[in-house]
Specification:
Length: about 650
């Protein structure tokens, strides 16, 4: 981006005038405030935006860095902040959730009703012996009950760990085991795209693998009415359990550092890690980003299309909007059912004002709209919208422009929010009433966040030069540790390369030479981003080599127009390499299904290729750079002289 090519897109006067952060001067003033008094900047908002049971006196404790503590002597409860205080403020009859089911049925829940539901669920958990600090795994679809379950855990101080409903029995088992959960909350099944998909049977399979012995109770929500096997003494229907529970429940007042949740995410090595988040700092950033990035107002209807199985669903469905007393839309289904106009119809029907989704969804809906005018956003009344958001992966400028023109009608700023499971909330993002936009750039850090682009030694790089994205200062909503593995936490995020001083995001970035705007250039580790879902290449490789047919496997990513990145697997079989295309097809299907069963359908490779061996150096190291080139279909111009067995490249060309 040089000055001639950068076309800044400015927010309208109307948006600027009414925004919480109004104009670039206001943004700069906030950054300067944080610069001048870092702790004071956060403490001021923590006092203003959170209701504390016991106010904190210390803001940041760096004595055991990088295990930072924020507001450590303060006490609070997140569920109280999301529900009770809104009811106390007179919002009891305001709609908190507009739930639209897969089949289009709409259910509205007010703040008062939601509070009663959460209290009943919290009482049920307590009646089963769940107490402060106990972990509860939630394996539920997108439903009101999913949000209620999370809030109920928060109410009693039991950290939850959500496992996305698309994950396999093996993944569920591993997460239950690692977290040492005492309870599982699941459902008989889930509705997606008009189909009922079983969930409880997958949980049963997870239990049958062994390693889930810590779980004493399984609560089952009846959603689809599918066949369910209940284990006497352990499993109970949610409706039975809730039947006689009181509608009030005293919150557990916890220390600000008490873990609110664990959320497993993929890293570059080994098994997924349990990212541990705090209570006070996490809540603060959820609220601040709702206010400043989304400019949330009492009149807004907010819609984040994520699933509660991912961090976006935690911060921008379960916690952020409710902590701000907003009305939000929660959607059970998929964007393409009954047709690809579903999102646009829902925005029209519910008069959504803020809409937050992922680039992959936009790209697939562009494709659909191109071939069918009836599902084009222009066929719907989207005039209620005022702000659009994007999250999870880079948004290519063409998709950005289409989103801006066709969904936002050229009047809604797009906040391209860069953040991670580990960061808890937005890190680099435009503020809608301040930041001039550039398609494809997440622009500038959120006020108070100190991101920089550095080289391998940690030295700052000049604008215009690509490098490693780091955060120079701790922030309130940051990851506290990896559950049960503090060493891995330090190694992964505070590596010795930067003297243990900088948070390593794992992404590369470049700042525009003129504007200083950040563009994320992609992961610098072996993590792939497929449709906004994070996948470790090693995780997929481990799944493949666990198949009895496979001797060795290497997995790389390749750019994909629709999903951002696609998974390509290079496999060496124990038996002979199939030369007959039909035989190869059969094995490819078997391996793909296997990965789906081991991890989940999202991890299925798009392309599987066979070789007699993998390209390795003479010392036996797999040459991944070469594989990435092969995956893309590039002509090999790289030096292959260190390659032990150049002949196999031909086989792997695909
Ligand atoms: O590579 C970045 C990409 O998604 C990664 C984080 O994934 P996850 O922890 O699953 O959280 C996703 C939802 C916050 C990052 O390391 N990423 C996320 N948002 C963006 C992005 N890449 C470019 N632009 C974004 N806006």
């Amino acid at each position: 981006m040089s000055n001639e090519s950068v076309q800044l897109i400015y927010p309208s006067d109307e948006i600027v005038k009414n925004a919480a952060v109004s104009g670039m001067d206001a943004y700069r003033a906030l950054c300067a405030e944080a610069e001048a008094d870092y702790e004071g900047f956060w403490a001021k908002r923590a006092r203003e935006f959170i209701t504390w049971k016991t106010p904190f006196t210390q803001t940041l404790d760096e004595s055991n860095a990088p295990f930072f503590k924020w507001f450590a002597d303060g006490k609070l409860n997140v569920s109280y902040n999301c529900l009770d205080r809104n009811v106390e403020a007179g919002l009891g009859d305001k709609v908190a959730i507009i739930f639209e089911a897969d089949n289009g049925e709409v259910t509205k829940v007010t703040y008062k009703e939601l509070l009663a539901k959460v209290c009943k669920m919290a009482n049920l958990l307590r009646s089963k012996g769940v107490k402060k600090g106990d972990r509860v795994v939630i394996y539920l679809p997108m439903t009101i009950e999913g949000i209620v379950a999370m809030q109920a855990c928060a109410r009693i101080g039991a950290p939850h760990s959500i496992v996305f409903g698309g994950f396999s029995a093996q993944s569920l088992r591993d997460r239950i085991n690692d977290a040492g959960a005492v309870m599982l909350i699941t459902s008989d099944g889930q509705f997606r795209g008009g189909k009922a998909i079983p969930l409880k049977p997958i949980a049963d399979e997870a239990f049958s693998m062994g390693g889930c012995e810590s779980v004493k109770n399984v609560i089952v929500f009846k959603r689809t009415g599918g066949d369910v096997n209940m284990v006497a003494g352990r499993d109970e229907w949610l409706h039975d359990g809730l039947a006689n529970q009181p509608e009030t429940c005293e919150p557990e007042w916890v220390e600000a550092e008490h873990p609110l949740f664990l959320l497993y995410t993929s890293g570059s090595t080994g098994k997924p890690k349990g990212v541990q988040h705090s209570t006070g700092g996490y809540l603060l950033h959820a609220i601040m980003t709702m206010k400043w990035t989304f400019d949330i107002k009492p009149t807004d209807t907010f819609w984040c299309t994520a699933d509660i199985g991912w961090v976006t669903g935690h911060t921008y469905i379960t916690y952020g909007p409710l902590a701000c007393g907003a009305t939000e839309i929660v959607f059970e289904g998929v964007p393409t059912y009954p047709d690809a106009g579903r999102f646009w119809k829902m925005i029209q029907d519910h008069k959504a004002t803020i809409f937050y989704t992922a680039p992959t969804a936009i790209r697939s809906l562009i494709k659909a709209a191109d071939s069918n005018a009836a599902v084009h956003p222009k066929s719907y009344d989207l005039s209620s919208l005022r702000i659009l958001g994007s999250v999870g992966e880079p948004i290519n400028p063409a998709a950005w422009q289409w989103y801006y023109d066709n969904v936002g009608g050229g009047r809604c700023p797009i906040v391209d929010t860069f953040w991670q499971t580990e960061t808890g909330g937005h890190m680099i993002t435009p503020l809608p009433g301040a930041t001039p936009l550039v398609p494809g750039s997440c622009t500038l850090p959120f006020p108070g966040i100190q991101f920089a682009v550095v080289d391998e030694t940690g030295a700052d790089l000049p604008w215009g030069q690509g490098g490693i994205l780091v955060c120079k200062k701790p922030w309130p909503s940051m990851i506290r540790t990896i559950w049960g593995d503090p060493d891995r936490f330090v190694k992964s995020y505070y590596p010795a390369d930067f003297q243990g001083k900088y948070y390593l995001a794992g992404d590369g970035a470049i700042r525009d030479a003129d504007t200083g705007y950040f563009t994320i250039t992609g992961r610098i580790d072996d993590v792939l981003n497929v449709s906004g879902h994070r996948m470790g290449t090693m995780e997929i490789e481990s799944a493949l080599v666990a198949n009895p047919l496979v001797a060795e496997a290497a997995v790389v990513g390749r750019p994909d127009d629709l999903t951002g990145e696609a998974i390509v697997a290079f496999v060496v079989l124990k038996g002979a390499r199939p030369t007959d295309p039909e035989a190869a097809k059969k094995i490819i299907k078997e391996l793909s299904d296997w990965v789906g069963k081991e991890i989940g359908p999202i991890a299925k490779p798009k392309d599987i290729r066979f070789g007699d061996n993998l390209p390795k150096t003479r010392s036996g190291k797999i040459m991944r750079r070469l594989l990435r080139g092969l995956a893309k279909g590039e002509e090999l111009t790289q030096d292959t002289s260190t390659l032990e067995n150049p002949a196999i490249l031909e086989q792997l060309k695909g």
